[in-house]
Amino acid sequence: MIKIDNQLIDLVSSQAQVSKRQRKNYNFHKFAEDPLQRLINAIEPYSYIQPHKHENPDKREVFFILRGKILVIQFDDNGEITDHIVLDASKGNIATEIPERTWHTVISLEKGSVSYECKDGPYDPCNDKNFAQWAPKEDDNNSKSYIDTILQKLNLKISSF
What we know:
alpha+beta; Jelly Rolls
């Protein structure tokens, strides 16, 4: 039995807070070849995940909120926002599923935010994600302003921390 409790969430969250990327995965699948990838993803505000889609091979991705608030955004092929949800258990927004071939990203809206993710496997870093050319790359200095632009368009803010 795999148990997900506050002790594990606290551990992964504390690792995210001290990591350069401000996020940390804790994988439950044992091998990259596993047909179902399962993990905890602790993500701090302004940790930037370049919008991407899972295509060729096509993969679905599901996010369940465990702690905090996480914004999940879908985009069209031109980078325009087509849908979004703030995952927040206190508001009853527990999970969302992103279909294959759909541009998306996530933004932490609160310090200590943690989600549980399931995604079709296997995981191969060479073809897992198709990154959007219309968005900054992960190491781009414009990533913070890109996040701010998304938040402004959706009239959302990151909780002060």
